[in-house]
Amino acid sequence: MATTRSLRAYRRHTIYGRAGRDVVVRANAYTQDPDILHGGGGNDGLDANDNGASGTTPEDTLDAVYGGKGFDICIVDARSEVGGGCEEVRVDPGEA
User: Fold this and answer.
1) What's the pTM?
2) Nearest Cα to 46, choosing from 68, 61, 31?
3) Are 51 and 59 in contact (CB under 8 A)?
4) pLDDT (tens digit, 9 = 90+) per residue, 63-94?
């Protein structure tokens, strides 16, 4: 299930993983807005690494990633985007 809500001048995308293993839950195409990813039960890959998606996009560290039950790999632009529950964190600024 994915929901999109308006937040000031930009959009916030909230994406929920399903129960079981989600290979990759991606929000890396939504730049310059806060994206919120939630892992479900099981082992999940959560990708909120959206810096530099177009090569000219300014830094975007507005996202939040929350792992769920299981072993979750969270890929973010900055460690400040990790909200908890991630067993492995990959910080990869500038690469989408």
Assistant:
1) 0.73
2) 68
3) yes
4) 999 998 889 999 998 899 999 999 999 997 65
